[in-house]
Design goal:
Strand content: 25-35%
Number of domains: 2
CATH architecture of the largest domain: 3-Layer(bba) Sandwich
CATH superfamily of the largest domain: FAD/NAD(P)-binding domain
Distance between the termini: 42 Å
CATH topology of the largest domain: FAD/NAD(P)-binding domain
Order of helices and strands: EHEEHHEEHEHEEEEHEEEEHHEEEHHHHH
Helix content: 25-40%
């Protein structure tokens, strides 16, 4: 079959892939997006969009549309899942918005995807195609060649791998490692808000932290729906089996928690569970005219709520660096230099924060005492993340922090922070 010629081929039509297409199109590039699913859509439920993500959505020209479906919580509240005591809070009102230039929002994942999809469909320089599963990618120096299972062939001046955690593009670039299972699973879902009580924090993003578990609660879709995510470490985990992280384990784990936490299981969907994975930071995202973005490049645990946020930053940064550069090679090199250390810092910090959130016993007591002493209005510790501009990165600061986090993780585990 004769290859279809395209300036840019994006593999993957999720949030990251559509954001890349939109960002590149705004810079005058023609983009072709292929998605293996028969229709464009997004699985999951709620999604948190910190100010760094809202900044990227502004640059993508979809912030106004997204804001119509989003909810803007009054505070980010951390509670103890065992005792029910308040641990700490971060007000995200006027002062927070003025500090970072953008608000903190929560919304349904499918709503964000729908707005990005509509923006791409409205742009004549973007072509969208479903039912295309890539099975072979070849780096040809100044071109990239992709073959799909149905025989479709594409020849691109730039190929962007935005195909998620189990990225085939990443594998075809030579990374044969597998995602790292954290032995945690998540049960999630949304219910009509009228089924919830004020105790659930209808005006807040609430996180209940407990021993090897947590519960996240917040409203989505203009407040009409209420999103809940119950996460716990499975005692029955086996690497060679999928029979772990069961509903029975979920119920047993949450039965010993504060009544408001254990009662949440009545409104959480139990028909499907999501195992939690990440990968160690990757040293190289680029080969020739092939580049990785989003979860294909830096899949991370959910504990900082930054997976989609970082994919949006990738999109803006890739388009910006290519636009600033005299050659494709220089633009891709500048993109990787701007993003690699920062996303590694987010990945490792997410792991670190997961350990803090899931502390037990004396460690949990120290966590609570330390967090309860912090000034709720002191947001300095978020500046590196929420105030980060992917087009003007502080690479030196990120590199220093990545080095520290890797050493901390190695000391804590007696070796690699990514065992197994």
């Amino acid at each position: 079959m004769e290859a279809k010629q395209t300036p840019v081929l994006v593999v993957g039509g999720g949030i990251g892939g559509l954001a890349v297409a939109r960002a590149l199109a705004l810079k005058g590039r023609a983009v072709h997006v292929i998605e293996r699913a028969p229709t464009f859509g997004e699985l999951g439920a709620g999604l948190q969009l910190a100010p760094n993500a809202m900044r990227s959505l502004h640059r993508l020209g979809v912030l106004e549309a997204v804001s119509r479906d989003a909810v803007f919580p009054r505070q980010l509240l951390m509670m103890d899942a065992v005792s029910g005591e308040r641990i700490t809070a971060v007000p995200v009102g006027t002062a927070f918005r003025e500090r970072y230039g953008y608000p903190y929002a929560v919304m349904h994942r499918s709503d964000l995807h729908a707005h990005l999809l509509q923006a791409c469909r409205n742009d004549p320089s973007i072509t969208l195609e479903n039912g295309r599963t890539v099975v072979e990618i070849t780096d040809r120096g100044d071109r990239a060649h992709a073959v799909c299972a149905d025989g479709s062939v594409y020849d691109a001046g730039l190929l962007v791998g935005a195909d998620g955690l189990h990225s085939k593009v990443r594998h075809m670039l030579g990374d044969d490692t597998q995602p790292v299972c954290q032995q945690y699973v998540a049960f999630r879902g949304t219910v009509p808000t009228e089924r919830m009580t004020e105790a659930a924090g209808l005006d807040s993003m609430v996180g209940w932290a407990g021993p090897e578990m947590h519960l996240i609660q917040y409203p989505v879709r203009r407040g009409d729906l209420f999103n809940q995510v119950a996460v716990f470490r499975s005692p029955g985990y086996r690497a060679d089996s999928d029979d772990w992280g069961t509903v029975e384990e979920l119920e047993a784990k949450f039965s010993g928690m504060h009544p408001l936490v254990s009662a949440s299981l009545e409104t959480i969907g139990k028909d499907r569970r999501w195992a939690m994975y990440d990968r160690p930071p990757l040293d190289n995202w680029v080969r020739g005219r092939i580049v990785l973005v989003g979860d294909a490049a830096h899949p991370m645990l959910q504990y900082l709520a930054q997976g989609a946020c970082q994919a949006l930053e990738d999109a803006v940064c890739l388009a910006g660096m290519l636009d600033r550069s005299s050659s494709m090679e220089d633009g891709l090199a500048r993109f990787q230099a701007a993003r690699r250390a920062h996303t590694a810092r987010v990945q490792l910090t997410a792991r670190f924060f997961g350990e803090i959130a899931h502390a037990d016993g004396l460690a949990a007591m120290f966590r609570n005492a330390a967090f309860q002493r912090r000034d709720p209005d002191d947001c300095r510790h978020f500046d590196w993340l929420y105030g980060h501009d992917p087009l003007e990165p502080n690479a030196a600061d990120d590199l220093g922090c990545v080095s520290w986090l890797k050493q901390f993780a190695a000391n804590a585990t007696g070796g690699s922070p990514y065992p197994g």
